[in-house]
Amino acid sequence: MSEYTILVVDDERWIRMNLKRILDTEGYSVQLADCGQAALAILGERKIDLILSDQRMPRMSGLDLLEKARDDYPDTLRVMLTGFADLQLALDAINRVEIHRLLLKPYSKQQILSTVKDLLELRSTGADIPFVDLNKSRIKKQALDDLQKDHPGIDHVQRDRVGRIVISDEDFDDLKNPFSELTDLKDLLESSERKSEEGTHASAPEKKSAKNFF
Predict the structure, then answer these.
(1) Among residues 24, 32, 153, 209, which is most buried (max CB within 10 A)?
(2) CA 92, CA 131: separation in Å to the nearest integer?
(3) CATH architecture of the region 5-125
(4) How far apart are the first and last CA of the chain?
(5) What is the tens place of the pLDDT at every residue in 89-140?
(6) What's phi and psi for 19, nearest 5 deg?
């Protein structure tokens, strides 16, 4: 039995029970809440190591709950689950709430378990756990989009019927330097981050830079 207690918050019972079954496989102690108010009551009664909360819930949203949890129970790790329809709303508020991870539905069992395990292991070492940083993740997405525009199809590979990668004759020469695209991508990411930082400093010189990381 694990020493950690996880609080699962979702207004849909079948989702709560599914997440509980997933977490039970690793022996976590699991508490369930069907709304933000019930979650806050549980937080006030016992020590919770990590919250897994849905974003869209009646009366109190997941963002509001996690913001309250951050203020009142800062040592509790905060993970938000959101559907694509609510993604923009979540992205707009995420730095304010300071969550530790964001998982987009539909998520897999492995995503849930690896996210929870990684966060709890980091916490056990006493290390500072970075928050999700939307600015850096947007920069990286834009850099990848630019690379895809310049090199169409770079994010896809052709495979044969048993799953082996198929390389055409015209692409073979590109593999003589297998790190060339990675170098291009690294340079592009660094260049995008520098431009973003310069733009931030130029437009808001008095604003303290974010210390969160994706």
Answers:
(1) 32
(2) 15
(3) 3-Layer(aba) Sandwich (3.40)
(4) 31
(5) 777 667 778 888 988 888 899 999 999 999 999 888 877 777 776 554 444 4
(6) -65, -35
Q: What is the model's pTM? A: 0.62
The DSSP call for residue 127 is P
CB 99 within 8 A of CB 90: no
Closest to 63 (Cα-Cα) out of 47, 39, 29, 41: 39
Report the share of the chain in percent with pLDDT over 90. Answer: 42
**Other Cβ atoms closer than 10 A to 207:** 9
Distances (CA, A) of 198 to 21, 193, 194, 207: 47, 9, 6, 13
Lowest pLDDT segment from 19-23, 69-73, 129-133, 196-200: 196-200
Q: Where in the chain are the domains?
A: 5-125, 134-203
CA distances from 190 to 3, 136, 200, 208 (A): 41, 11, 15, 21
Does residue 83 sit in helix, strand or coil?
coil
39 alpha-carbon distance from chain centroid: 21
Matching residue, tokens 């008095």: 206
What residue has token string 């069907």? 34
- β partners of residue 6: 30, 50
Residue appearing with tokens 């939307």 = 134
Q: Which of 195, 207, 200 is nearest to 140 (CA)?
A: 195
Instruction: Give residues with Cβ within 8 angstroms of 11, minimum separation 6.
Output: 34, 35, 54, 57, 58
CA distances to 8, 140, 172 from 78, rounded to whole Å, are: 11, 23, 46
